[in-house]
Amino acid sequence: MTVKGAGKPPRPARTPEAHPAGKPGPREAQSGRLHPEGPAVPARGTLAGPPAARPRDAKAIKHFVLDTNVLLHDPGCLFVFQEHEVVIPFTVIEELDTFKRDERDRGRNAREVIRHLDRLRTMGRLVDGVPWGGACDPKDRRAGGSSPEATGVVRIDVGQHPRPPMLAEDKPDNRIVAVAFAMHARGAPVVFVSKDLNARIKADALGVRTEDFENQKVDADRLYTGFFSATVDRELIDDLYRDRVLPVSRVEAAVAGLPEGQSPARSLAARAGVGPVAVGRGGAAAAVEANQFVILRDAEDESHTGLARRIGDTDQMTPVTGPRKPVFGILARNLQQTMALDLLLDDDVRMVTLLGTAGTGKTLLAVAAGMAKVFSEQRYDKMLVARPIMPMGRDIGYLPGTKDDKLGAWMQPIFDNLSYLLSTRGATGQQQAESLSAEQRIEKLISGGQLVLEPLTYIRGRSIPHQFMIVDEAQNLTPHEVKTIVSRIGEGTKVVLTGDVGQIDNPYLDSASNGLAYAIEKMKGLRMVGHVTLARSERSELASLAAALL
Q: CA-CA distance, 262 to 258, in Å (whole number)?
């Protein structure tokens, strides 16, 4: 959690792995920073166990005043503040009561927060403060960064606090800020947490320490790219293509500049992200993640290169050459597109995320691979393509017609790619006769059930087995929505998430908090998950210039 007010931000709390005994480190006890691994989710069953004891040193306790938007963003945020006190102004309860009738995620989150508070209410008086130790499973508590011995307190503030002249207008935001200001005036160590920029500015102007809630945010500038470059000896590249396999340990040792057979330590701090890897950086180089690509460059000859991928979580790396024939008329135009096709055509990789600016070929590659797998190889029963219903700029309002008629406007980018691939240029002998137009072929695929275009609005509760599923423009989804989508995946289904974190139309998300970036960072290193960041636009020269300069 980044401090938006004056002063130096607190150092991040260490992960539970840093303390095997489960106890917080000395800096954890002093820091109010939210744990980056995400909030702990309270158990939905019956409350069990006595509340955990409060820390003895009351001076170390901080008071976090939460704004309504924080609770609507993450209902589990009540339980991520470790041993500190969470203060909920009574105005927030009134606003939750208003939002609970909303049929969208905002209403669902409001109702979940109310259920959390109702469970806490059965354990004690919320106006006096209720320790939440008995309302949260210990393993969930550790996942949220809190130790099992020390848990925090949730309290509802029902006081009528005098407001300074600048907050004289009686409106919800001012009443919420007034709670934090009153505690600050009494000398209590208070932090006002809000996702509302204007509310944070108000509180900061009054001298109250303010912070944004960044529990589900990632570092967008250092986002996992799925590959890295390394300068190695010529012999390693030759052995890769001669033997068609290399031990991962040998590649890691070569990257780290260590003697052969000695692999660098696998640590989070040493994992690679983007760009070339300097030999011996920090005494060790990155360990190769599952399904991560390594671009090998000859130290003596720049033109002598190789590309390898670690196959799942095995200890072997194989060379990557790309498909030998076009995929529905599509051939990779650059190195990253070769990596993307390698993941898309690998049936053992069940989830692929593709990130890149406009024109890099994310959607086209995904659709081409899906058509090859469904229509040519018949590896999957159907291809399902979904997009979030999120307009760019002002919406045009209600659309007439049936669901398919309404969906046509949102799915037009998919139709463009399908038409291009099903045109004469992308047709193969297995496709329909050339007398049919691309639009007629699309209609036949849809009517035959092989191609399904769906909005994400109705995905909750579904199970999607044996399908090649593409979710386009995934950067407009929240982390919770991405979790909902991926958790719908059934046996034999492959899901592909594509998007550009630089083009987000959802007003409540940014490049660090969107669901696509969150999924990339949290799912990396898993056996059946792969990712590639595409950097070069191949749409046209003008599109490349626009993406780089505008």
A: 6
Q: Where are the domains of the chain?
A: 16-211, 221-319, 335-549
Count CB atoms within 10 A of the CB of residue 267: 11
Question: pTM score, two decimals?
Answer: 0.73
SS3 sequence of 52-115: CCCCCCHHHCCEEEECHHHHHHCHHHHHCCCCCEEEEEHHHHHHHHHHCCCCCHHHHHHHHHHH
What is the distance between the alpha carbons of residues 199 and 212, in angstroms, rounded to a whole number? 11
Q: Which fold would CATH assign to domain 335-549?
A: Rossmann fold (3.40.50)
**Tokens 């040998």, residue?**
250
The domain defined by 16-211 carries CATH number 3.40.50.1010:
yes
DSSP letters for 366-394: HHHHHHIIIIIS--SSEEEEEE----SSS
pLDDT per residue of the chain (550 residues) written in tens, 0 to 9: 443 333 333 333 433 333 333 333 333 333 333 433 333 333 333 333 333 444 445 567 899 999 999 999 888 899 988 889 999 999 999 999 999 988 877 898 999 999 999 999 999 999 999 998 765 544 444 334 444 455 789 999 999 898 999 998 999 999 999 999 999 999 999 999 998 999 999 999 999 999 988 777 888 888 999 999 999 999 999 999 999 999 998 988 888 765 544 444 443 333 333 333 333 333 344 589 999 999 999 989 989 999 999 999 899 999 998 888 899 889 999 999 999 999 999 999 999 999 998 889 999 999 999 999 999 999 999 999 988 876 544 555 566 666 566 666 667 888 888 888 887 554 554 444 456 788 888 888 888 889 988 877 767 778 899 999 999 999 999 888 899 899 989 999 999 999 999 888 887 788 888 999 999 999 999 999 999 999 888 888 887 788 778 7
**In terms of residues, how long is the chain?**
550
Residues 6+ apart with CB under 8 A from 107: 99, 100, 101
Cross-strand pairs, 500 = none
What does the block give as tokens for 289?
């993640």
A 10 A CB-CB count for 200 gives: 21
CA–CA separation, 116 and 140 (whole Å) = 15
| Strand 351-356 with 529-534, pairing | parallel
Q: What secondary structure does DSSP assign to 496-514, as a single string?
A: EEEE-TTS---TT--TTTS
Q: Could you check whether 16-211 and 335-549 share the same CATH topology? A: yes
* CA separation, residue 440 to residues 229, 235, 328 (Å): 45, 53, 17
Distance (Å, whole) CA 136 – CA 543: 51
Q: Which helix (H) or strand (E) holds 180?
A: helix 172-185
Of 132, 8, 121, which is closest to residue 80 (Cα–Cα)? 132
